[in-house]
């Protein structure tokens, strides 16, 4: 029996309209009653996640910013990692051949230099908003992560540019088809979950995890039970072909799987 369950948010726990379904919330509460520790592992900012879990009325550890921050149940920082200032400076102030918008996370929130109201749709239930910022004035030592949002093919070309410029000085990953992340070296959800597991006196073998994008790959590949969403990026399924694929987030597939796991673990599982 797993003792720690880790959940990606967008494309996994949340439905396509970025809402947590009632069935899913009920199942998460059942896990809590079984004394299974919950953690939400997401690219979203901790300020937003605190608001959301308050609405959910759940006790959960938070892995935010794609592993750059870990927070305890009480909100204390258990781990933090930021981009090296020289890396942040290069990414922020270089000219990149891309149409993608640039976004910065730091402890104050989400910063961008363009007003893009459509991007707020993913945050409609939390009310979390970006702050408009002149990146030329942003200190390079105050950057947790940088992400680019836009067309996937454009981002794939940008990834080649960033990789050539940064080499091993940063970790690049897709957190969605339309989102490319620039993270500190060694920062990913898997490394963060391993740190949290150790803090709790557990091992990664004691964990189960659910995800749908390439930023979930380290986490899913290292836990005792990793599960891939049916709506996951094809690259994730190809990278971890040995892991089971469950249903679509639209159908609250995490809840469907966990209900089976809790009630009828002796029977074979098939997606809804």
From TrEMBL:
Catalyzes the hydrolysis of 4-amino-2-methyl-5-hydroxymethylpyrimidine pyrophosphate (HMP-PP) to 4-amino-2-methyl-5-hydroxymethylpyrimidine phosphate (HMP-P). Belongs to the HAD-like hydrolase superfamily. Cof family. It is an enzyme of class 3 (hydrolase). It holds the Pfam family Hydrolase_3. Its EC number is 3.6.1.-. PROSITE patterns: COF_1, COF_2. The active site is at 8 (nucleophile). PANTHER family: HMP-PP PHOSPHATASE (PTHR47267:SF2), PTHR47267. It catalyses: 4-amino-2-methyl-5-(diphosphooxymethyl)pyrimidine + H2O = 4-amino-2-methyl-5-(phosphooxymethyl)pyrimidine + phosphate + H(+). It comes from Scandinavium goeteborgense. NCBIfam families: Cof-subfamily, HAD-SF-IIB, PRK15126.1. Mg(2+) binds at residues 8, 10, 212. This is HMP-PP phosphatase. CDD domains: HAD_Pase. Transmembrane segments: none annotated.
């Amino acid at each position: 029996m797993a003792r720690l369950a880790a959940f990606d948010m967008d494309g996994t726990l949340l439905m396509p309209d970025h809402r947590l379904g009632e069935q899913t919330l009920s199942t998460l509460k059942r896990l809590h009653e079984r004394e299974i520790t919950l953690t939400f592992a997401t690219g979203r900012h901790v300020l937003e996640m605190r608001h959301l879990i308050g609405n959910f009325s759940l006790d959960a550890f938070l892995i935010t910013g794609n592993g750059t921050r870990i927070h305890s149940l009480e909100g204390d920082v258990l781990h933090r990692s930021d981009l090296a200032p020289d890396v942040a400076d290069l990414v922020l102030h270089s000219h990149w051949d891309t149409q993608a918008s640039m976004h910065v996370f730091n402890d104050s929130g989400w910063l961008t230099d363009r007003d893009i109201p459509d991007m707020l749709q993913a945050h409609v239930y939390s009310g979390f908003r970006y702050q408009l910022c002149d990146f030329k004035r942003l200190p390079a030592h105050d950057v947790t992560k940088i992400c680019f949002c836009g067309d996937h093919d454009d981002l794939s070309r940008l990834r080649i540019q960033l990789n050539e410029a940064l080499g091993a000085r940063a970790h690049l990953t897709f957190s969605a088809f339309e989102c490319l992340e620039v993270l500190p070296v060694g920062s990913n959800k898997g490394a963060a979950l391993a740190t949290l597991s150790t803090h709790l006196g557990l091992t990664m073998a004691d964990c189960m995890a659910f995800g749908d994008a390439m930023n979930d790959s380290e986490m899913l590949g290292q836990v005792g039970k990793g599960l891939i969403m049916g709506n996951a990026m094809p690259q994730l399924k190809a990278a971890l072909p040995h892991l089971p694929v469950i249903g679509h987030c639209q159908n609250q597939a995490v809840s469907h799987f966990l209900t089976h796991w809790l009630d009828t673990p002796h029977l074979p599982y098939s997606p809804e």
